[in-house]
Amino acid sequence: MNSLGFLHQAPTRRESERKRHSTTVTVESQTTSASTVENRVHHKRANLFHVIISLDRAVAPRVPSLALHHYSISNSNEIHPFSILPLSLFFLVQSYSHFLCVFFFFGTFFMALSKISTSHTPSQTLKPNFYSKPCVPLQCYDARRSGVSFEQHRKLRISCSVAPNQVQAPVAPAVPSDTTSNRDCYGVFCTTYDLKADEKTKSWKSLIKIAVSGAAGMISNHLLFKLASGEVFGPDQPIALQLLGSERSLQALEGVAMELEDSLYPLLREVSIGINPYEVFQDCEWALLIGAKPRGPGMERAGLLDINGQIFAEQGKALNAVASRNVKVIVVGNPCNTNALICLKNAPNIPAKNFHALTRLDENRAKCQLALKAGVFYDKVSNMTIWGNHSTTQVPDFLNAKINGIPVKEVIKDTKWLETEFTERVQKRGGVLIQKWGRSSAASTAVSIVDAIRSLVTPTPEGDWFSTGVYTNGNPYGIAEDIVFSMPCRSKGDGDYELAKDVIIDDFLRERIKKSEAELLAEKRCVAHLTGEGNAFCDLPEDTMLPGEQ
Ligand SMILES: NC(=O)C1=CN([C@@H]2O[C@H](COP(=O)(O)OP(=O)(O)OC[C@H]3O[C@@H](n4cnc5c(N)ncnc54)[C@H](OP(=O)(O)O)[C@@H]3O)[C@@H](O)[C@H]2O)C=CC1
Ligand SMILES: O=C([O-])CC(=O)C(=O)O
């Protein structure tokens, strides 16, 4: 991701937005539903301005300077009415229409008086809340809907591909009665076609909302198209994609949304983009949290934990506030286990069991290595557990894994290979890939996210299980409580899971599991300030690394 590119484009974007705001500010003044006394005062004045602007539009062709005046009025909340008094005097002298100009003169005069009469109060300066900020109508609409603080909404930027000149000026954005409204949407998804009527003609399930963070990143670039195609949730499951980006990636996100549009997926019913998690996570039933800062050269792991932890603490709070009460959360952004822990701790109203850290990629890598060694196809490998952290301490479990239903150790007799080469290959696969490819695994990660979701929405085959990082409370394996640890799970296909039984743990496996557990407990101490457990204390093991770090 070339963040420099985004920075470079930012001023151009701001410039175009400034111009767009200047054309719509009259609409804002009219539609502002000010609740405070001072806002009401301002609101009245804004209406008077509107009358005057309408009047002087009528004569503007004859007085070119008026065009300038429109611009300054529309760009400021604080133009003093006296500033246009000379102009109205000018009309009084010049104009052919006495009625018009007398009206114009007195309108201006009374406005000036109203300004004086209120000038002693602080109400003259509108606080820079969301409503007073220049915004396109869609933004105003979105802020009203979710009922979160103005401060949060100042960051909001849901975009729509309707060009500014297509936005019909004074349209008061109505407060929707129905949250399935598709107005906060992108491109063709902004059209007003009757989605519900359309869906009645199809034997589809009801629409589900899927939020994806880091949506302009590499993993998402593969994942989103898989989600939209129906291969994840099924061919009868329409979906809405709610994509979270940042100031940095907003323009790229628009590009992603355009590509989704152009793909004409029938099951993709809505796409919305934004940079405010409180907006983007609204009512989502799945949250795929991919966006995270990569660990740069010289950055301590503790620093990475802190920076990314803050992202996941905020996103946990947002999920807690606005997501579906039974949202399933899959944390991909690294360090994913501890990020998932931070996220769930900040979302106390969502069951801790609903949070996952993605270790499915590690499971797939392990299956691949075992299949290659045994000379069988991948699908013959089952019961593959990854224990622990998504890091180089993870434990690919060859004790419980099976090939063609037979324990791996009976098929691959080379125990030394299993204990050393196999284990290390899986632990460090991400790093080797980065060395060759120059970037971290994106396509295979996207595939593994698909696998992880499908494992939760389809029943697990009899006798098999899958790996996912989940909350350890109540686990039967003796793993420390209150961390997110990868363990073997089974699902009935309802989105929920149970920990697998019939798992053997020998001394070798136990010792490895303990090492990964110790690492996660140290990570947890290091983010105590983000989980509400007091002061952080970082004593991370020296060799703690992500799979991609070497
Ligand atoms: N668990 C697993 O198995 C795997 C996990 N990963 C992890 O997934 C994550 C995403 O990988 P990938 O898509 O390849 O990465 P990219 O760099 O392509 O995209 C990641 C996104 O993260 C966001 N981001 C970057 N820096 C910051 C920051 N400082 N603050 C907030 N957000 C930021 C950016 O989105 P925006 O600007 O919109 O915020 C960016 O688009 C990484 O953390 C990676 O380590 C990768 C492979 C496997
Ligand atoms: O370290 C990274 O960013 C990549 C990663 O997690 C992996 O490949 O497993």
Automatic annotation (TrEMBL):
Catalytic activity: (S)-malate + NADP(+) = oxaloacetate + NADPH + H(+)
Domain (Lactate/malate dehydrogenase N-terminal) ranges: 208-356
GO cellular component, one term: chloroplast
Annotated compartments: Plastid, Chloroplast
Start and end residues of each Lactate/malate dehydrogenase C-terminal domain: 359-529
Mitochondrion listed as a keyword: no
Keywords: Chloroplast, Disulfide bond, NADP, Oxidoreductase, Plastid, Transit peptide
InterPro entries xrefs: Lactate/malate_DH_C (IPR022383), Lactate/malate_DH_N (IPR001236), Lactate_DH/Glyco_Ohase_4_C (IPR015955), Malate_DH_AS (IPR001252), Malate_DH_NADP-dep_pln (IPR011273), Malate_DH_type2 (IPR010945), NAD(P)-bd_dom_sf (IPR036291)
PROSITE patterns xrefs: MDH (PS00068)
Cited function: The chloroplastic, NADP-dependent form is essential for the photosynthesis C4 cycle, which allows plants to circumvent the problem of photorespiration. In C4 plants, NADP-MDH activity acts to convert oxaloacetate to malate in chloroplasts of mesophyll cells for transport to the bundle sheath cells.
Similarity comment: family membership: Belongs to the LDH/MDH superfamily. MDH type 2 family.
Subunit structure: Homodimer.
Protein name: malate dehydrogenase (NADP(+))
